[in-house]
Amino acid sequence: MKSLWFFEDVNLFNILCPHKLETYKKNHDFDSYKKRDYIYFEDDSASKVYLIEKGKVKIGYYSEEGDEIVKAILTRGELFGETAILGGLKRDEFAQSIDNETSICPINADTMLKLMQNNQSFSLNIYKFIGFRFKKLERRLQLLLFKDTKTRLMEFLSELAVDYGSESATTGDTIIRHPYTQKDMASLIGTSRPTLNILMNELKEEKIIDFNRKELRILKKKS
């Protein structure tokens, strides 16, 4: 189960998007974006939250030196822009499409808050989701500041195992089928794609992982 983005096996997109709710369906459309299109910029007004219907979205910000810091790369069913329901007036990050066919379900903050007020259990889950994301982001930023690149990669692979992994019945390996490209992975751990390739091959030689174009495996340790 993708524990980070799903609550009780319910995809957020399937229960939240106004297009699926009769009250809001009539006048609701999806927003479409191409690769490198921005959904919003830093300092934009925060009046909506967003659900991804299709494609991928990069969340990040720029350091004082102008370097891009990637906080998250999100895919179908995932929520972003939650500042709008937490009382924030402006964005402290940017959101950018990194797929050529990204489709977004925008939800006005007032609509989202009404949905939450009408369903206490759902509201609690949303706040748990936001809290969990903040904890994960804090841990990732600490890794970027204080850990070497190989350690950051190992931590990231552990996260992938939790979110996308399943155990092989025959070998005991953890099989991971995730939505990230190598470029995505490099951005998320704050390194270059060539460096990521070198480290992945080192881990493969050390028999910690194995990988091909279709899947990544964390190998079971030999006793």
Automatic annotation (TrEMBL):
Residues 147-222 form the HTH crp-type domain. InterPro entries: cNMP-bd_dom (IPR000595), cNMP-bd_dom_sf (IPR018490), Env_Response_Regulators (IPR050397), HTH_CRP (IPR012318), RmlC-like_jellyroll (IPR014710), WH-like_DNA-bd_sf (IPR036388), WH_DNA-bd_sf (IPR036390). The keyword Transcription applies. Gene3D superfamilies: Jelly Rolls (2.60.120.10), Winged helix-like DNA-binding domain superfamily/Winged helix DNA-binding domain (1.10.10.10). Keywords: DNA-binding, Transcription, Transcription regulation. Residues 12-91 form the Cyclic nucleotide-binding domain. This is Crp/Fnr family transcriptional regulator. It comes from Flavobacterium litorale. The lineage of its organism: Bacteria, Pseudomonadati, Bacteroidota, Flavobacteriia, Flavobacteriales.
